[in-house]
């Protein structure tokens, strides 16, 4: 249970960073709702993507804990989730094109996030049946 609180608190800090970064860039480029500057677009997408994937990820982690999944497995899922989201954020904020080296970080982050989804879903189905 404490692990979920820790991961949630860590994600709140990351979300705050992404929010402030987006606000800073909006002020820097004097742009409103629809960004046009590449740097701001990447920051906007990093923030939006984080807010799209993290809630479901935390719910799945919570479900694994409620299904009485092994503690080591819950911890592994949490680590995969945190590392995946950090890789994705780094890759998205740094990449300018799909062939850039940092795009690999983004791809790795999404693969880890979906891997976390798959593991969590499998555990919930396996334990609850």
From TrEMBL:
InterPro entries referenced in this protein's UniProt entry, alphabetically: MAPEG-like_dom_sf, Membr-assoc_MAPEG
Listed transmembrane segments: 59-87
Protein localization: Membrane
UniProt keyword Chaperone, yes or no: no
Record key words, sorted: Membrane, Transmembrane, Transmembrane helix
Pfam families xref list: MAPEG
Domain of life: Bacteria
Record's protein name: Glutathione S-transferase
